[in-house]
Structures are given as structure tokens and as C-alpha cells.
Amino acid sequence: MIMLISFLAIAITLILPLFLYAFYQTLYLKTPAFTNWPFVGMLPTFLWNVSRIHEFQVQMLKSKGGTVEFLGPWFTKMKAVITADPENVHHIMSKSFDNFVKGDLFREMFQAFGEGIFTTDSHEWKYNRNLLQYLFKQRSFETFQEKVIHNKVEKSLIPLLNHVVQQQKESMVDLQDIFNRFTFDNICLIVLGNDPNCLSVDFPEIAVEKAFNQAEESIFYRHTVPGCVWRLQKWLQIGEEKKLTEACKVFDKFLYDCIDSKREELLKNCNKSEKNHQVDLLTAMIGEEKSKGSESGDKFLRDSAFNLFVAGRDTITSALTWLFYLVATHPLVEANILKEIKENFGHKEKPWILSVDETKKLVYLHGAICEALRLFPPVPFERKEAIKADILPSGHHVYPNKMILFSLYAMGRFEDIWGKDCMEFKPERWISERGGNVYVPSYKFFSFNAGPRTCLGRDLAFLQVKMVTASILWNYCVHVKEGTRVTPSLSIVLLTKEGLKVKITKREN
């Protein structure tokens, strides 16, 4: 008995100071998010809720006024703030833009992205953005991208859906997989001028697409374990890090082969004028550099292409998947979209694909897309860190190297921003009394980023989603099995965990 009492006394003597120190640490946090356990910090609470992390952080942020802080495991020295406060977003992304950067840790975790527009800061970022902004605004590129999307819908998507309708009886098809293939082909054509033909009736397994998917999965894995774990795996080349290395080798070979091919093609056509010629972005970037008397290194072109793939592939897949899920489960919204399409284009013969100017007439559809992006933002988190110490509008202190996370998923579910009906799917909230689309500041509707880093591909994203959605809904009925529970995946892009299984039938208008 005496030995037991002595043991307990020793245990208390050793353990109590650890708990007191953990408690002492939290005194410096304005709104602690998790219990700060000795040694492991917030890790137990995080792991307990990781399977429902999106809904968990919504509840947490709502209960704490929109901004929380937490401490990671002691050996990681992680300190972070998570916010869904529009004023904080506005301060960081616009008012004090120069003081907040991606940072070295972000670049290390997203190493596969290279030195592209998403990972760079300061002068490198400005150069990348100015170049892409210039190219995006070229009329020839606008015409080219419209033609690419039009052809892919007409010659690949519609034939595949017709095939699915003919072959499908009671079986279901994964619409998210179809959108994944569509967007991969699209972005390959727009960026590289190369069509891998993923969107085919035999649903082929394409090595480069598989490699790209694996790279994204492995990058997300780096966010779920302490840095020392994935760095050790990288050094030993085991587990997810080995998969990431192998995936990048496959995808990089594909990119570098395309770059070599483009250089050879431009060399053969060097005497021909490329001005106003419809070209892909890779050709345009090489041509632009040559016109300035310099030549882009292959690494720069590879990094630019990789970043554009991330921006224009999974984000569009996410937007389309969640939009069709929401529309299929809200019959009144579907009826209103069809009514708008019929009023504007009902006279056209089937099948048809809209032009850029025609998509501008679909105000209600635009509102439905915005609602889907509000509730299910393709990128659920954004990340920054401060260069110099600062105080956010919420009163939270931030210091150099302190991670700042924006929860876009939570922002779309805050009553203070969207009203008491914030959990409802209501395209009407985006339509003014005059019948036009309502403007919402980017620091509230954060799906396309905000401030100087506002997404350059916003218009292209809306164009793709409108053209695809209008074509599918006008020609087909999409049925989600009643009672189907669709949940968000745990990844850097907000896809659905198990895909989107649907039954597709011909629509009789």
C-alpha cells in the first residue's frame, strides 16, 4: 500500500508540472481551439475529429466567434490561428497584403508545385502573375479556350453520356470520375495543347492522370502528420513520400516531353507569324519570352504548367460535382435552371453547346454555381504566415512563422455573413431585384481568393461550368439515389469521398 501511495506521489510530482505548463501555454491564446495536452498538444482532439474535420471546424469557429488558436505537438513548435472572419481575411489578403506570405514551410510542403504562382511570394509571384494575366487577356486565348471546351463537350462528353444512357440499366455511374476525366483533358489541351483522351467510353487508365492524382494525395498526407515524419519518409524513400517521388517522375516526364515538343514545333514555324494565332498557354509562354529576347528555362515552364493543372483541373471537378449533387437533390432549382435555358435557347436544335456570350444570359445558373461554391468551396483552406508581428481585426496576435489558416468551408456557413438561411441552397440570394447577379466582396465570398491574389481563371471557371452544366441538364436527367449521403473528402481539394454515383437518362423536353 505504501509503495502504491509512493508511486502515485511520484507520478503526480512528475506529471502535474507538465499539465500546469500546458495550461500556462494556453494563457497566451485569445481563443484556444483545442485542449493543449502535455507533449502532444492538440493532436488527440484533432485525430478524434479528423473523419469529420470540415463540420467540426465549422462548429468550433462558430462557438468561438470566428477565430481560434491552437498549439501543435510540443516537438513541432506549431502555433496557428484559424479564422473565418471576413475582416481578418480583408486585412490579410488586401489591407496588409505585403506582410503576409506563403512562406518557406508552405513551399516545402508543396514542393511538387515548384516555383509557380501558388507557392511563390514577392517578385517571383508578381512575375508569374503578370505573365499569366497578360496571356489570359489575349483575345486569341479567349477564343482558343472557348473552342477547346466546346469541342470537348461536343465530341467527348455528350457521346460518352449517350453511351452511358444506352448501356446503363439499373447500374450507376460515377459522375465525379467523368468530370475528373473531362477537366484533365481540358486542362491538358488549354495548357499544353495535348489531349490524353481520358474522357472515353472505355474509361481508360491514363498513367499521367493517375500520377497527378497520386501527387495530390501525397501532398495532402504531408498535412496530416508531423513534418519530421514525412521528411524522414522522404529521406528513406518509403510510404507516401516514395509514391510522391514516383508520381512526380511520371508527370514531370510528360510535362518535359510536351515542352521539348513545343520548342521543336516553334523552331520549325519560326518564320510564321504567331500573332493572333490560337495557341495553348505553353506555346504562348515560350513565344512571349522569345519576343522579349529571352528564353524561359524548362523548369520555369514545368512549374507554371503544374500550377495551372492544379488550378484548372480538380477545382473545376469539385465545382461541377457539388453543383450537380445540389441541383439533383433540389428539384425546384433544377426546374428554374431549365426554365431559364428554355427561355433563352429553347429554339436551338439539340444537342447544342453555348458560346461565351450566350453563357452570360444564364443569370440563375450563375447564382446556382455561386451557391455551390459558397457551400462547397473547391479549396476548403487557404494558408498564410506573417513577415512581421501584427494584430488582426479580431484582436488575435500573429507573429513571424505563425501559421494562419482561412476556413473557406466555415465562411460559407456563417449566419453573420449569409443570414439565417445560410445552410440552404438558394441561387436566389445571388440575384438582384433588377434580375442581374449580386456582387459579394471577395473577402466574404472567398472561393476565388481575394485581394491581389484573386484567381486569374475565375471567368474561365464560370465559362466551363456553365457550358457543361447547361449542356448536360438540357439533354439529360441526373438522378442521385434517394437517401444517398455524399460527404466531403479529406484532401487539398474538396471532392466527394466516394464519388457521385448517379443514374443518367435522356431528357424529353
Detailed description of the structure:
- The protein is of the alpha+beta class.
- Helices cover 54% and strands 8% of the residues.
- The protein contains 20 helices and 10 strands.
- Helix 7 (139-167) packs parallel to helix 20 (458-475) and helix 8 (175-192) runs antiparallel to helix 13.
Share of residues in strands: 5-15%
Oligomeric state, counting identical vs distinct chains:
single chain
Described by strand count, sense and barrel closure, the largest sheet is: 5 strands, mixed
Mean pLDDT: 85
Number of helices: 20
Strand order, largest beta sheet: 1-2-8-5-3
Q: Supply Rg.
A: 25 Å
Q: Regions with pLDDT < 50 over 5+ consecutive residues?
A: 21-25
Separation, N- and C-terminal Cα atoms: 85 Å
Q: How would you concisely characterize the structure shown here?
A:
The chain has 509 residues and is α+β, with helices and mostly antiparallel strands. It has 20 helices and ten strands.
Chart the SSEs and their pairings.
Blueprint: H1 2-26, H2 43-49, H3 53-63, E1 67-71, E2 79-83, H4 86-95, E3 100-101, H5 104-109, H6 122-136, H7 139-167, E4 173-174, H8 175-192, H9 207-222, H10 227-236, H11 239-268, H12 281-291, H13 298-312, H14 314-328, H15 331-345, H16 356-359, H17 363-375, E5 381-386, E6 390-391, E7 397-398, E8 403-407, H18 408-411, H19 415-418, H20 458-475, E9 476-480, E10 501-506
